[in-house]
Amino acid sequence: MTTLPACPLCNSVYTYEDGTQLVCPECGYEWSALAPESTPSADAAPVIKDAVGNVLQDGDTVTVIKDLKIKGSSLVVKVGTKVKNIRLTEGDHDIDCKIDGIGAMGLKSEFVRKV
């Protein structure tokens, strides 16, 4: 029986093989079984892209590409709404912003396009 290496990210011993990849079920990290073990860089920020694949950065201006209903309210963010000075965050809604007439909110990058 072959012993698989522990996860380089969280040191979990419950790793498993998935083709040529090793997978950690606890943190979800995947790495190559063929390459030498290396820890992912904690300083590397994830790349966030808009709906058409443009890389977004803090301070960018974006346009909403779909009507977005706001949960718990009757307000709607209309198509074509321009959002200035966005701030990128980690999580499900990866853009924090302020929209005129609505206020502070989180948006998903898949519903915006960089101007």
From TrEMBL:
It comes from the Bacteria. Belongs to the YjdM family. Residues 48-115 form the Protein YjdM C-terminal domain. Residues 3-32 form the Protein YjdM N-terminal domain. This is Zinc ribbon domain-containing protein YjdM. It comes from Roseateles rivi. InterPro entries: YjdM, YjdM_C, YjdM_N. It holds the Pfam family YjdM.
